[in-house]
Amino acid sequence: MAEPVPFGIMERLIAELASPALDEIRLKDTLLLVKSVLLDAERKQENNRPLTMLTTSLMIFKPKNECVLVSSDMQNISGNILHQSYIEDDLRGILFSRGIFRVRTILSPVHGVGAKDEVLLNAWISRYKSLRFLDLSDSTYETLPHSIAKLKHLRFLSLRNNTKIQTLNASICKLLNLQSLLLDGCTKLEILPQELRNSINLRQLGITTKQSVLPESDIAKLSSLEFLCIKKCDKLESLFVGRKLPNLRTLELVETLPSCFQGSASTLEALAIKECNRLESLPEWLSNPSSLKSLQITNCPNLKSLPSDLHRPALKSFQISDCPRLQTTHQLKM
């Protein structure tokens, strides 16, 4: 049986990283996803009582020995470390203990600081066969090695805000346990990886691409997908016309506003529209989702009006901010 993910250890890592000395560290978005993915994985194992008890013991007795902030002044990383957080982008001098193979988590939590050493990336992939969590946000890799497909246990992969990568090979689609794939902010990415349909356990997907039409036949096969973020897709014309994502609950549109979104509008529970300069009125498809519980509209400077029928019984939270052309700034909770 698969080993349970040490969610409690991750919570302590989050607490340590959020100390006052590290106020500038950008943890919120990434670590909320970390907690969500790892907690879900642990819940699936909660019937395995012996392993759960072992995890609890580790959380109580060995938290600080399993988590480390990696910086250039470190000379060695000990073999019992499970969770590494890299706070500098040039760490070529770091030495790894020969016995360090059990690492589960690699984070890059500092905004604007990401991995750039391909040798280091290849070392992670070759050594850490049990890696669950790989955060390459703000990295400068132009491609990923095919060997990444060897990380069979990987559940989270982020390339957020990598402005160098143009293509992704299909190797990442062989990561069948992957639950989160974040490619939003990859502004040079030409197309999404082929065979995306194979990522059958994907629950969270972030996209930035130059495509005008997404590979909807592939994405529609992601039956577990609950969260979709589409960011800076300037050429995107429409979303899922005639296709359905049966479990999609949250849609986030950032600097992107497709003219049509039909396939899963009726199942949406949360919608966020951010930084859409072209938005003058809400799209017609927004009048359809009867299940919508939360609506957030932020920094849309040309938004002029709201539809009169926007308030529905299911809508519990409605927030609008930084939309100066509206007569007032609304923040309604119902």
Distinctive features:
two-stranded parallel ribbon, 17% helix, alpha/beta, 334 residues, disordered C terminus, 13-stranded mixed beta sheet
- Give the count of helical stretches: 6
Terminal-residue CA separation:
45 Å
Radius of gyration over all CA atoms, rounded: 21 Å
Oligomer: single chain
Question: What is the general shape?
Answer: elongated
% residues in beta strands: 15-25%
Along the chain, the helix and strand elements come as HHHHEEEEEHEEEEHEEEEEEEE
Kindly state the percentage of residues in helix: 10-25%
Number of strands: 17
Please tell me the overall pLDDT.
75
Low-confidence stretches: 1-10, 12-31, 40-63, 329-334
How are the strands of the biggest sheet laid out side by side? 1-3-5-6-7-8-9-10-12-14-15-16-17
The helix/strand class is alpha/beta
Largest sheet: 13 strands, mixed
Pfam family, one: LRR_14
Keywords: Plant defense, Repeat
InterPro entries: LRR_dom_sf, LRR_R13L4/SHOC2-like
Protein name: Disease resistance R13L4/SHOC-2-like LRR domain-containing protein
